[in-house]
Amino acid sequence: xKLFFKSYTxxxxxxxxxxxxxxxxxxxGQQPDLTPYKNTPDKINYLRNEISKLGRSGKFSEVIRYAQxxxxxxxxxxxxxxxxxxxxxxxxxxxxxxxxxxxxxxxHKAAQIAPTGSAIQLRTWIQLIYTYNxxxxxxxxxxxxxxxxxxASRAKSTKILGDLEVLEANLLNDGGKFTQSLQAYIRxxxxxxxxxxTSEMAxxxxxxxxxxxxxxxxxKSLAYIQEARTLFIKMQNLDRVANCELxxxxxFMTLNQTDSAxxxxxxxxxxxxxxxxxxxxxxxxxxxxxxxxxxGKTDQAESYLKQSLAIxxxxxxxxxxxxxxxxxxxxxxxxxxYELAKKYLESALANQQESERSxxxxxxxxxxxxxxxxxxxxxxxxxxxxLYSTERDTLQKKESAKALxxxxxxxxxxxxxxxxxxxxxxxxxxxxxLAVQRRNVFLLIAGLLLSGxxxxxxxxxxxxxxxxxxxxxxxxxxxxxxxELGANLSSIALYSDLLLKNQTAEKERTxxxxxxxxxxxxxxxxxxxxxxxxxxxDNDILERTIIRMKEFANPLLESRNIRFVFVADDSLSQAQxxxxxxxxxxxxxxxxxxxxxxxxxxxxxxxxxxxxxGIISMEIADDGIGFDPGNVRRGNGLNNMQARASELGGKxxxxxxxxxxxxxxxxxxxxx
Length: 672
Fold this sequence. Notes:
Number of helices: 25
Largest sheet: 5 strands, mixed
Low-confidence stretches: 1-29, 434-466, 476-484
Helix content: over 70%
């Protein structure tokens, strides 16, 4: 089993040097005082307990120091399981600081040292799977998962099997395979039930909530996390209760239930201070800042973010520190306090660059471009705008390559299946030929059957080749639009905004022209983004359209204090729609929401997406002032909606009366 890991131990000389320097640094620090403890087991237990406390407080540098002391102690006494355990703690501390290469190195080392099939080896494999997934190396994650499942099955370790199902569920969820992910969480729940492990049963429910969140089924996600919270309350596990309530607060925010969100964020702060968990306290203050900012209370939002940063900085979690600094910088940009914005954004950028997992760096580049532009540092503005465009394009190309790879994999699987089917048909035809020697009439029949099968297989192959070719074309078009037009329009928008802010001479003559350029550039960017999204093949499932609808409508309606409710049948989430149907459905939705914002004076909008007997229907209802369809002048908006409904082969009905709101109903065949 250890052969699996030998290849990884061939690390570069530089990495070994760095590792040794880190070990020397740790060793030079103040060593834990073990003198009160006479025997080795007591010393090991003391170090374990201290590491647990330090980890909860986010003091990961200290965790590394104590883990190193544990490794030295257990190596002297030749206790391999303890050496592996403390190496595991060290790897976990590096992982928490997003030092992924270092964490991966020590996880592999722990797995090598641990006795084969031991609990610590299985636990280390679990962290390796998690780390590989974090790095985007799903193939490596699945390889370790396969080995770990076999060992856990042989060891009849039901608890570990449940943990491995949870990890598989996470991998599937990250890969967009939500139905399979739910099934894996259910299997995990069943394993934990066998063990009567209430804590892990609750964790599996948290996982189900996560998948429902990914599917944008926010009410269901909330119901499952509340169920998990109830179990943790029964166990008096305050740590997990606090984490569940943080998730609940975030979901209440998504559902625009700000009063409930505020209440739970405040509860999380109280819990977090009690259990000395700086991470969740900082996250909760960040949530309160988001609420305050949405309500226009910018001073309060600034205060909450500063409290969040002060607490989060007590931990070593650089990505979260960077995210809070970025939020402060963005707030100052909105308030036109550009020097303060520059300070916090540059700090955020430094932390993102230091971290090996800099997920928000693209947004920071864009904010710095805007900040330097406002400060008239045009060279720096251009520099960060270019960085933003380059990084964004790189990310898009990676996503396109991943989508294409998935299509090609499916094509290869289908081709293999067809080759097997053809081989089976040939074998059957050979058997027929033996019988044909006695009855010539069957020769003709067998020939016809074989040619029919060959034609069918050939046709299926042709269709698959055409499909793959089309996927490539669509991805290439999307990339071309994004790279060329997207970047150019972004630059036009940026520089017209700069000129608008710095107009002095001939203001009355040039200002309207510049405003027009800016509006048209921003409008074109929006249209190009819609087009790119429409063309991309990985958006062909309806679930992605539903998510995009919500992403478009939520901020727009929130800015006007309009309550938004979106309800969709579960059966629709994995429905496949072709490119044109998706495009027209989304554009009709977008036009309807824009009309609500511009004209309706509504306080709430409800969208329902249903499916029955192959017919998909969408209803958008608001409680606004309504209008008389017979007397209103039908501009491009209403005419475009009717034209798009016709392109769908569907029917669009607009039902409205003055003072009684508006109801728009669209219905069409799913296979149009």
